[in-house]
Amino acid sequence: MKHMNKSIIGRAMRRGGFGMKVAMAAGMLAVALGAHAQKYVGGDISLLPTYEEHGTHYLGRGGNDAQVQPLEYWGDSARWNAMRVRLFVNPANAGSDAQGEGVRQDLDYVAKLGKRIKDDNYAFMLDFHYSDTWTDPSHHSTPLQWASTDPDVLADSVYTYTKRSLEYLKSVGATPDFIQPGNEITYGMLWPTGRCYPSGANYGTGTFANFVKYLKAGIRACKEVCPQAKIVLHTEMSRADNVTSFYNTIGSQVDYDIIGLSYYPDFHGKLSVLSSVLTTLEQQHADKDIMIVETGYESQWQLPGASHTATEVGLPLSEEGQKKFTDDLIDELNKHSKVTGLFWWAPEDNEFWSDKNPARSSWWNASLYTQNTGKPLAAMFELQRFLGSNPTGIQSVTTTKRTAANEWYTLSGQRVNKPTAKGVYINNGKAVVVK
């Protein structure tokens, strides 16, 4: 809902004149329909340009095969209002397997995609992988060109790289609204020197003190270049107790705003596990907002390497099962007032049109597109419930002269005849601005 409001206002301001009136009316409509300006929903769409380059056709959910512009469609029809993109230091140094899985987001790639995201009036979350390849609980390799075992040298590399990257993004109109200085940093970053346990204990030759040094360096650059951006510390939930331990150990040693979590039922278990973690975090860190910055559930096949089966999770491997996961997740998140963000990981994965020239070496089974028709799945449209929007409700705002059908209602729900005054009305299930 918030995306609709921002998008219309942004476009109307560029048009000027009556467009500004449309923008004001659209803003009033968003308020009337219960917009949640402080909440964000969307996806990590880091591979969208690659899919487009490989000929992927993004379709709507109707009965035809008409192509849609994905960024426009996700905002107007799915009502998303935020997007996340990862950034690697030099993905050309990543192994061929990693590149085949989607490691290719260098600064130029991210700048172009980030500008598209901002131009379409989404909030933009930037996810720094301080590595040339994937970073997660099992991998945090130091970038090849940063080769050093001196923590001071590495901290300076983090600071300089972060600052220069953000300055460039800002210069091209891709200023992030949220910044992750590290991806899934439960066990530190820049291994081996920055490897540590969530409890603060050192890991081999790595120390928690080094990790904090690197984190502070990245955050300092973020604050200098993008002072309005919110800082997100991102962990995963392979062990629930590690999450609470991590944030308790970090405490006030670094300046951050948001607790970011990865939650996948295939790897982390039932929603009850997430519920317990969220409750504990809210109690122990009441000054922080919380976001689910990665999530997903499959619609047909189990995710490779899953540690919890669909039977354990209690959800079928089907489109309906994926939709139910989304509904249940949102119901749970809405019980926690500090949770302000929800991002689906790789919703754009869609190889239906790319069989002869695939964008990735394998499918992401938790995509929000079917791999056998190329059309969106129901869960895509359920995500807007996190913002308080109804997937079956109003889908667009249009303008008209007083010539439409006679099924008119005011925003308060009162039936009226064909309007004789300017304003915002509901006509045939759509919000209409009458001039």
Topology (SSEs and partners):
Layout: H1 2-15, H2 18-32, E1 40-44, H3 48-53, H4 70-76, E2 82-88, H5 96-101, H6 107-119, E3 123-129, H7 151-171, E4 178-181, H8 208-225, E5 230-236, H9 240-250, E6 258-263, H10 265-268, H11 271-284, E7 289-295, H12 310-313, H13 319-333, E8 339-345, H14 378-382, E9 397-400, E10 408-409, E11 415-416, E12 423-427, E13 430-434
Parallel strand pairs: 1-2, 1-8, 2-3, 3-4, 4-5, 5-6, 6-7, 7-8, 9-13
Antiparallel strand pairs: 10-11, 10-12, 12-13
Helix pairs in contact: 1-2, 7-8, 9-11
Query: Would you list the SSEs in sequence order as H and E?
Result: HHEHHEHHEHEHEHEHHEHHEHEEEEE
Q: Quickly count the helices.
A: 14
Over the alpha carbons, how many angstroms does the gyration radius reach?
Answer: 22 Å
Which term fits the overall shape? globular
> The biggest beta sheet, please?
8 strands, parallel, barrel
Structural class: alpha/beta
Spatial arrangement of strands, main beta sheet? 1-2-3-4-5-6-7-8
Mean pLDDT: 86
Strand content: 15-25%
Low-confidence stretches: 1-37, 394-405
Helix content: 25-40%
Intertermini distance? 23 Å
What's the β-strand tally?
13
